[in-house]
Structures are given as C-alpha cells and as structure tokens.
Automatic annotation (TrEMBL):
Disordered: annotated segments: 76-113
Protein known as: DUF1292 domain-containing protein
Lineage: superkingdom: Bacteria
Biased composition (Acidic residues): 99-113
C-alpha cells in the first residue's frame, strides 16, 4: 500500500496518471487510498490485501469515501492550542521589543565600513 505523500502511476480512462497519495483511511473494514492528480482531482482506490492490488472506485462510491474523509479528517476540531495559548503572545512581545530596532541594519553596516 502507498503511504501519504507518495507518488504512483495508475491508468484511468486509458490515460496514465501520476497520482499523489493524500490520505489512507480505513472504513467498513476496507482500506482506501485517496489520491490527487496534477489537476487537483481526487480519486479513491480500494486496496485488496489478498491480491496486493489497488482498484479505482466508481464516482458514486468514491464521493461517499471523500465526504467521509472530509467530515472526519479534514473538519475535525484543531487539537492544538497555539491560538489559545498566551505564552506565544508573551514571547512575540518579548522578541518584538528586543528586535524592533529600525536602526539595526544601519548600525551593523557601519561596523563593517
């Protein structure tokens, strides 16, 4: 099975496409690969463990997988606290005060000449 970020080639409608893996997800006891081509079109493949092959899903089935992926993976709540943490605000103010010197570069240039 392909990993996220990996590129592979697959024939779609008699055209060889270069696809980049966006996500691997498991749903309904099956493993799916969501891949994107250079035009930004998402394609969904099902991974057959027995044959170690991938098969392109039909559009209706693919849309169901893509919608599930977008709901569960893409629109999940951000678990990071970067925006809510005051530590970063304090750190930014500290560095702004320390390095917010308009003459910083002028002083540096004078030292070299």
């Amino acid at each position: 099975m392909y990993s996220q970020g990996e590129t592979f080639y697959h024939s779609v409608d008699d055209k060889e496409l270069e696809l980049s893996v966006v996500e691997n997800i498991s749903m309904k006891d099956r493993e799916y690969i969501i891949a994107e081509d250079y035009d930004g079109e998402l394609r969904v493949f099902v991974y057959d463990e027995d044959e170690e092959e991938i098969y392109l899903l039909e559009d209706s089935d693919a849309m169901e997988i893509i919608e599930y992926w977008q709901d569960e993976y893409m629109s999940g709540k951000d678990i990071g606290d970067y925006e809510d943490d005051e530590y970063y605000d304090r750190e930014d103010r500290e560095y702004d005060d320390r390095y917010d010197n308009e003459d910083y570069y002028e002083e540096e240039e004078e030292d070299y000449y």
